[in-house]
Amino acid sequence: MKTKPKTIDHKGYVIPTGKRPKNRKEREKIITHFYKNWLNGSTEKSVKNLSLNKLIHVNRDSFLETRYWGSRSYQSTLTVLELSYVLKNAVVTGKNNPKPGNKNQSKFTKMLIMECVVPKLRPHVTTGKLTVGIRKSDNQRLQYCLTAK
């Protein structure tokens, strides 16, 4: 029987695979570092999604929600590191209204649930789950959260 490695190297990051709080904290640091680099390196701070044929924007709120949920498992952290690929290739699999009482979702009219197969993450992850909010003020699509499915 194969044992799971204690860490996985991906895109220059060493991601702990454990479930302890210290492992989650380390994954939070990785996601924070990755998003800062991604946002600083992207003049548009968005990626055109092929399925929607629209830009999906990334901002501070995208990072905060994703850091919280994406650090819960190493699979989700791996998925976050493929942000550009998922933003570009995800397809809509569902639509929801924002959760009532959820302050973070109150600025959106709809929440798009999108999925994307990420071949280079196999065998650790098959599919990424991307949640995109449609902002009330201007109908802009904003990445809300990204995790492994």
Structural class: alpha+beta
In terms of DSSP E residues, the strand content is 25-35%
The main β sheet shows up as: 6 strands, mixed
Number of strands: 8
Tally of alpha and pi helices: 4
The structural domain count equals: 1
Uncertain runs are none
Strand order of the largest sheet: 3-4-8-7-6-5
Question: How far apart lie the N and C ends?
Answer: 24 Å
Order of helices and strands: EEHEEHHHEEEE
Rg value: 15 Å
Mean pLDDT: 94
* Bulk shape: globular
The level of helicity is 25-40%
Keywords summarizing the entry:
33% strand, two-stranded antiparallel sheet, globular, 149 residues, six-stranded mixed beta sheet, 8 strands, alpha+beta
Short account of what is shown:
By secondary structure, this protein is an alpha+beta fold. The chain has four helices and eight strands. It has one domain.
Notes on the protein architecture:
The protein is of the alpha+beta class and 149 residues long. The protein has one domain. It contains 4 helices and 8 strands, in the order ββαββαααββββ. Strands 3-4-8-7-6-5 form a 6-stranded mixed beta sheet, with helices on both faces. Strands 1-2 form a two-stranded antiparallel sheet. The model has no long low-confidence stretch (mean pLDDT 94).
